[in-house]
Structure formats: structure tokens, C-alpha cells
Design a protein that fits this description.
The protein has 246 residues and is α+β, with helices and mostly antiparallel strands. Helix content is 26%, strand content 28%. It is built from 2 helices and 17 strands. It has helices spanning 2-27, 208-245, and strands at 40-45, 55-60, 71-73, 79-83, 87-91, 97-100, 102-104, 106-107, 113-114, 133-138, 143-148, 157-161, 164-165, 172-174, 180-182, 195-198, 200-202. The strands form 7 sheets. The protein has a 3-stranded antiparallel beta sheet, with no helix packed on it. A hairpin with a 5-residue loop joins strand 14 and strand 15. Helix 1 (2-27) packs antiparallel against helix 2 (208-245). The protein is elongated. The model has no long low-confidence stretch (mean pLDDT 87).
């Protein structure tokens, strides 16, 4: 009886956490470049002072789905997306390096080029700074070219190059800031073969139908766990009455 109730209780608790993971995916269905979180459940033995005869349910996020999303044309020069495999390097709030698949870039008041999430875009020697300009162009290789104030339409000067990387996906994980990081925390090496597409953004790779189906399935499982706990309660009360009669 005790084991029965324990399994149902942990199952309901972890089931609620699993629903949060899928709900977060659904909430980011329109977030450009969002990589959906995968979720799975498994049984885990209970270790302690006694023999590990019990097992409890555990919901976990084993990995992130790195499948590219669809390309959405915007026509904006500072909207860029990675064509094929690869990532755009950005500077995280702690001074480290994170990676995104797409960036709706803008230049802040200090001339720093920032991605849509507000993080500075990394160049050859750190965050990219852009001088006062009339126009900015982004090449396929990540080259940032500007037309300075007062210059003619054919006068373009290269100021920096976006750092593009292609690390092994097995060595990457999603951080709490929403960007992708290397598991060892070390910056990835720049890869000259990675290319960008200007005027496009990559959409989220979340499948709304699949996520909704998972949420509904988990809701039914949660109800089943609650019923199991109620059944355990009824069985316990019935056993107590039998003992009172005897």
C-alpha cells in the first residue's frame, strides 16, 4: 500500500513538471530561433539507509531539439539567420559566450551591435561596435560593412565580422538565458564555412500540434495518478475497518 501511494504521488508531482516543459515550448512557438526542450520520464530507485526496493517517477529534460526552424523573409538588412549548420556568437550577461541561430540585430545608443535578445553580437575581437553610419550590410560570411555619414552609395567600409561557429551538437546545451552554450563553458572556435542569410529570420522549431497532444496526454496521466492516490486511501480505510472488526 505504501509503495503504491508513493509511486502515484511522485508520478503526479513529476507529471506537473513535465507539463511545464511542454507549456514553455508552446509559449515560445512564435519566438524566433527558439529550440524546443525535449522531455522524458523514467523510474528511479530510492536510495537511503534501507534496501532500495522502492522506485519513484522522475521527469527530466534529456536534451534540446536542435532541428532548424523555417526561414521567414523579413526584408530587413539587420535580420540574419544561419544557413545550414552553425551558430552566431553573442556575449552573455556574465561575460561568457552564447550562441543563437538567428538575430534581429540593432545598434544601440553606444554603437554596439546587439541581437534581438539584447546580447552584444561577437566579432573577431569581442562585441562589435559600429561607427555612425547611413547603412549597414551583412555579408554571407558575417562581414559587417557600413556606409559612413556623408559618403557616397558605393563607399562601403568593413568594420568587423560576426563570429560564426559550428561546434559538435553533442557538446552544446541550453542555458537559463535561452541561448546555447558549450557544456565545458569554453568559447567555440570560429568556422569560416558557416554562412548567413540577410533579410531572413529563423522561426521556432516547436510543433504546436505535437506539444498540445503531449500536454493533453500528461493531463490525463495526472488525473490517473490522482485516482490511484484516492484508491490507495480507500483501500487503507477499508483495511482499518477490517482491523477494527477483528
Amino acid at each position: 500500500m505504501d509503495k503504491y501511494l508513493y509511486v502515484a504521488m511522485t508520478g503526479a508531482s513529476q507529471n506537473a513538471l513535465a507539463q511545464k516543459a511542454h507549456a514553455n515550448n508552446l509559449a515560445n512557438i512564435s519566438t524566433n530561433g527558439f529550440q524546443r526542450d525535449l522531455e522524458q520520464a523514467r523510474s528511479m530507485p530510492v536510495f537511503g539507509d534501507s534496501f532500495p526496493a522502492r522506485a519513484f517517477a522522475l521527469s527530466e529534460r534529456p536534451a534540446t531539439d536542435f532541428t532548424p526552424g523555417a526561414m521567414v523573409e523579413t526584408g530587413r538588412d539587420l535580420d540574419v539567420a544561419v544557413s545550414g549548420d552553425g551558430w552566431i556568437a553573442v556575449q552573455t550577461p556574465d561575460g561568457g559566450e552564447g550562441y543563437v541561430r538567428t538575430a534581429s540585430m540593432n545598434v544601440d545608443a553606444l554603437g554596439v551591435l546587439r541581437a534581438g535578445n539584447g546580447m552584444p553580437v561577437m566579432g573577431n575581437g569581442g562585441p562589435i561596435a559600429v561607427p555612425p553610419e547611413q547603412k549597414i550590410e551583412v555579408g554571407q560570411d558575417g562581414t559587417i560593412s557600413v556606409r559612413a555619414m556623408g559618403e557616397g552609395p558605393r563607399v562601403m567600409a568593413q568594420v568587423d565580422r560576426i563570429k560564426l561557429v559550428r561546434p559538435d551538437l553533442k557538446s552544446m546545451t541550453k542555458g537559463l538565458d535561452g541561448s546555447i552554450h558549450t557544456k565545458d563553458g569554453q568559447p567555440a572556435q570560429a568556422d569560416a564555412s558557416v554562412q548567413l542569410v540577410s533579410g531572413f529570420l529563423e522561426s521556432s522549431n516547436v510543433n504546436a500540434v505535437e506539444e498540445m497532444t503531449s500536454v493533453l496526454s500528461l493531463s490525463k496521466q495526472f488525473e490517473l495518478h490522482i485516482k490511484m492516490m484516492n484508491t490507495a486511501k480507500d483501500d487503507d480505510q477499508a483495511m482499518a475497518r477490517v482491523l477494527q472488526i477483528s
